[in-house]
Amino acid sequence: MTDLAHFKKKLETRAKELGARLDEVEDLLDDPHTKDFSDQAIEREQDEVLERLGQSAARELHLIREALARIKNGTYGACLACGGDISQARLEAVPYATLCKDCASKAAS
Hints:
By secondary structure, the protein is mostly helical. The chain has a single domain (4-108), classed as Four Helix Bundle (Hemerythrin (Met), subunit A). It has four helices and no strands. Helix 1 (4-30) packs antiparallel against helix 2 (37-73). The longest helix has 37 residues, at 37-73. The radius of gyration is 19 Å and the shape is elongated.
């Protein structure tokens, strides 16, 4: 039996962390660039890295919100492919997992 309260808290905590990270990335991207051309090139590279980090955080936040919705509707912990249970160990490692270990390995190959 999946401990829904445990995973809900874990997901909500991670969502807050990601929200703070996204806010920080947005603030950094809003900073004005220097007027020096060579410094601007470095700043643009840094902006690209920040944008990728922001995109990654946004994707994970989306997956977390979907997992929280599954908790709410009673389908959390069920594999979306085969309908079987997703193991506790897998949910501890990836609390927004949608596939059991077997289905995930089939999907990866």
